[in-house]
């Protein structure tokens, strides 16, 4: 594609020299797991999220799926406990519950945001329900306040799956600070991406974060003393170095993403008004970071082919909702239908979105997409 959906080479090229220099220092020191580089990133990310001031901060882990699993275990998930998750998201959100020994319960999403439908989630609470995972899908915050109120009333905990939302705000606060815990993925294509797999858990409860850190490090309380069965999920020093370097430019990169999204919205406004497509709503009081710019249309596959013919890449996130995934079918009640999630899987298409897109490329994408509906 002349204009790819995402170009990792552009995103990482400017980091080659500083990362190489820091890597040489790490090789000379023989410091690869934990240590100063990881501690430096954990402090910096906590301060960026504004949980470092009187809060518990950040624990680096190996990847985003581990972040969910470790967070679930730290919150005391027991075998058979139910956790409500949105049905339209990446498979890891539901699979992590199963990996941690729980039962994922699939809930509907809102048609105009594709975020968790809190009213539908409330209807799925049973005596076995212990918590809810909300997803800041495509870098657009979900209604954390409404979910917090549901959790308060029903005695549940809330995990923010913030894998796609580094830097997003809602109600003036950064996401990742609004639930009991938050999980992060720093997969290379994320707004804040590493040079490999990496993740983190953040929160405001020091005791809870201490348990996260312990579980992620074999349940260890001191050298060769293990208080519980943990796992090996640690952020390595090289990835921490990359993340610390990229964090300094995250706000500017997200500003550029919002600028690109604004141009796409402008170009597609007429087609949206005509009912040819739907543009997702950004809830009032939120500041999205557009990990993806996603539209909904009944002509999704034709639009994708049209863009490809023009040399423009696009992506489908996600073509199969969680309750239709074979890996999770044992958790699906007979006859479960979630029509909004199922329609989104048929209709969602994401246009090219990364901050290194040049203005001319943005204009080409905008013109090609709008032209399809003309």
Secondary-structure element sequence? HHHEHEHEHEHEEEEEHEEHHEEEHHEH
Rg over C-alpha atoms, rounded to the nearest angstrom: 21 Å
What's the helix count?
A: 13
Described by strand count, sense and barrel closure, the largest sheet is: 7 strands, mixed
Instruction: State the end-to-end distance.
Output: 23 Å
Portion of residues within helices: 40-55%
- Principal-axes geometry comes out as globular
Biggest sheet strand line-up: 1-9-8-5-4-2-3
Averaged pLDDT: 96
Unreliable spans are none
Structural class: alpha/beta
Q: How many individual β-strands?
A: 15
Strand content: 15-25%
Short key terms for the protein model shown above:
374 residues, alpha/beta, seven-stranded mixed sheet, three-stranded antiparallel sheet
């Amino acid at each position: 594609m002349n204009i790819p959906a995402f170009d990792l080479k552009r995103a990482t090229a400017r980091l080659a020299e500083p990362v190489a220099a820091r890597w040489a220092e790490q090789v000379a020191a023989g410091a690869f797991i934990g240590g100063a580089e990881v501690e430096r990133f954990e402090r910096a990310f906590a301060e960026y999220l504004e949980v470092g001031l009187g809060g518990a901060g950040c624990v680096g882990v190996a990847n985003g799926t581990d972040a969910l699993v470790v967070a679930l275990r730290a919150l005391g998930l027991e075998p058979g406990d139910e956790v409500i998750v949105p049905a339209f998201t990446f498979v890891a959100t539901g699979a992590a519950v199963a990996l941690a020994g729980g039962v994922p319960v699939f809930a509907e999403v809102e048609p105009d945001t594709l975020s968790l439908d809190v009213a539908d989630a409330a209807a799925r609470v049973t005596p076995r329900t212990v918590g809810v995972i909300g997803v800041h899908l495509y870098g657009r915050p979900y209604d954390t306040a409404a979910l917090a109120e549901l959790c308060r009333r029903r005695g549940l905990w809330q995990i923010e799956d913030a894998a796609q939302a580094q830097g997003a705000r809602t109600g003036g606060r950064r996401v990742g600070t609004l639930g009991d815990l938050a999980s992060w993925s720093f997969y290379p294509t994320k707004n804040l991406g590493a040079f490999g797999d990496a993740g983190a858990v953040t929160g405001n409860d020091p005791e809870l974060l201490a348990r996260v850190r312990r579980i992620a490090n074999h349940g260890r309380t001191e050298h060769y003393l293990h208080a519980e069965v943990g796992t090996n999920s640690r952020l390595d020093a090289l990835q921490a170095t990359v993340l610390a370097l990229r964090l300094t430019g995250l706000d500017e990169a997200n500003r550029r993403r919002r600028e690109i999204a604004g141009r796409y919205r402008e170009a597609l406004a007429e087609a949206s008004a005509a009912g040819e497509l739907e543009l997702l709503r950004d809830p009032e009081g939120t500041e999205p970071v557009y990990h993806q710019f996603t539209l909904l249309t009944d002509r999704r596959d034709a639009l994708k082919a049209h863009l490809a013919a023009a040399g423009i890449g696009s992506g489908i996130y996600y073509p199969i909702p969680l309750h239709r995934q074979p890996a999770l079918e044992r958790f699906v009640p007979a006859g479960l239908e979630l029509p909004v999630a199922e329609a989104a899987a048929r209709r969602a298409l994401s246009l090219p979105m990364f901050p290194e897109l040049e203005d001319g490329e943005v204009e080409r994408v905008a013109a090609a997409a709008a032209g399809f509906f003309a």
